[in-house]
Amino acid sequence: MLSLRSLPLASPAGDAWQDVIVAWAQVTGPAAPAIECGGGPATAVQRGKTTTHKEVGRSMYDAIQAETISLAGAGGDQIEAYLARPLGPGPFGSVVVIHHMPGYDEQTKEITRTFAAHGYNAVCPNLYWREAPGASPDDAAATARAAGGVPDERLVGDVGGAVAYLRAMPNSNGKAGTIGYCSGGRQSFLAAVSLPLDAAVDCYGAFVVGRPPEGMPLKVGPIVDRTPDLSCPLLGLFGAEDSHPSPEQVAELEKALVEAGKTFEFHSYEDAGHGFFAVNRPSYRPEAANDGWQKIWDFYGRYLAG
């Protein structure tokens, strides 16, 4: 049985964002306890008995908190970000979720919450905050694309700020990794060759190898030459029918990783192209996405958990 309750929390003074806390408990037996979450520790309430989450046990207590925050990015700029974290005692590994080119949207926030539900502190920085603060994801993405995309140096600073934020959390185990989709896949690789990380996941990141086609406004170039600087193990998930990156480009990156003696694993899925994780798009491929998620849990379990 599943008991679910969502309660709004008061935002900090001067902060216009609403905090949202979601808690649930999976139990066996005839009655499922409700989980009540306020400003303090969560409790399970059943038949007049109050039990703290420490007594319930970590395996049964899987509440998360998700909220919009502000963190210091490149150049010390305060940027918007979406944080999701488990409410258990930890310690937990951390994941920076790098959003796809369509922007800082509801689907990316759902992915961020998914990591929290699986026992990771996760934060997604809004990479388009400077160009279009408060704009819709579509408008912000259009503005950023017209400007040539997110500059590499700024991206590294924003992700570095997100990593520092996560590692400073009281329930952190000190380990942090990245994951990115589409343009975020390239940026996840870029972060991993620029920052000290513990794990990185590249989901069909375009232009790690090769350049954008003529007419595309993105001002990015290949970064495969930076492979020797990779600071951590890399997981790559690709579609065999993708053209950015193409199977040939994936093979070129694989060759560079082998030559540099790096730890990595690549998986390419037949009948899948670009964006096969995107549940709200025609490109979604459930079989590839489900297997990809399991690869991610296994990979982070080795390098970030515990």
Beta fraction: 25-35%
CATH homologous superfamily grouping of the largest domain = Alpha/Beta hydrolase fold, catalytic domain
> According to CATH, what is the topology of the largest domain?
Rossmann fold
Q: H/E series, N to C?
A: EEEEEHEEEHEHHEHEEHEH
The strand line-up of the biggest sheet is 1-2-6-7-9-8-10-11-12-13
What is the tally of beta strands?
13
Distance between the termini: 28 Å
Structural class: alpha/beta
- In round numbers, the mean pLDDT is 83
Outline the low-pLDDT stretches. 1-58
- The overall number of domains is 2
| Basic shape | globular
Helix content: 25-40%
Number of helices: 7
CATH class designation of the largest domain: Alpha Beta
Structural commentary:
The protein has 306 residues and is of the alpha/beta class. It has two domains: 2-56, no CATH class; 67-303, Rossmann fold. 27% of the residues lie in helices and 28% in strands. The protein has seven helices and 13 strands. It has helices spanning 53-56, 106-117, 137-146, 152-167, 183-192, 247-260, 286-303; strands at 2-9, 19-26, 34-36, 43-46, 49-52, 64-72, 78-86, 92-98, 120-125, 172-181, 199-203, 234-239, 264-269. The strands form two sheets. It has a ten-stranded mixed β-sheet, with helices on both faces. The longest helix is centred in the last third of the chain and has 18 residues, at 286-303.
Essential attributes:
306 residues, alpha/beta, Rossmann fold, 2 domains, 28% strand, globular, disordered N terminus
In terms of topology, how is this protein built?
Layout: E1 2-9, E2 19-26, E3 34-36, E4 43-46, E5 49-52, H1 53-56, E6 64-72, E7 78-86, E8 92-98, H2 106-117, E9 120-125, H3 137-146, H4 152-167, E10 172-181, H5 183-192, E11 199-203, E12 234-239, H6 247-260, E13 264-269, H7 286-303
Parallel strand pairs: 8-9, 8-10, 10-11, 11-12, 12-13
Antiparallel strand pairs: 1-2, 2-6, 3-4, 4-5, 6-7, 7-9
